[in-house]
């Protein structure tokens, strides 16, 4: 392991960013979608690309490409009225680990990590693996997610409706 990586994981700014990523996972497992939505900056993007190698999310095909408005609509579907994604929603447990630091400054930390998401719905278990990238904006008023990219390991195969957020 390089000295930069080792130092990065002990940096208090990086630890704040990791804590925010874990908080996000906790809120999603608790189905606290309003709390989850509040973790994002107003101009943040939440992306699940189909092409595992693309960094051009704006012009590439994505499973999810949510700005603030689309996150709000997604949360409304998950919390109000009848929606297939909300009815008997899966119980989930997310494990987020293997953090590496891509960028660190006094205002921004970019992390890469691995996520295993286990779900249970209608007497069936499912596991989803993803490589995550989070760009966290640090602020004395509270740290926020400015970008989340979830690269599913099976993104190029047929994906069934998950009914939860990755």
From TrEMBL:
Entry keyword annotation includes Coiled coil: no
Keywords of the record: Dioxygenase, Oxidoreductase
Highest rank taxon of the organism: Bacteria
Record's keyword annotation contains Nucleotidyltransferase: no
Gene3D superfamilies: 3.10.450.50
Coiled coil: none
Single GO MF annotation: dioxygenase activity
InterPro entries in alphabetical order: NTF2-like_dom_sf, Rng_hydr_dOase-bsu
PANTHER family reported in the protein's UniProt record: 3-PHENYLPROPIONATE_CINNAMIC ACID DIOXYGENASE SUBUNIT BETA, BLR3401 PROTEIN
Record family assignment: Belongs to the bacterial ring-hydroxylating dioxygenase beta subunit family.
Protein name, per record: Aromatic-ring-hydroxylating dioxygenase subunit beta
Source species of the chain: Williamsia phyllosphaerae
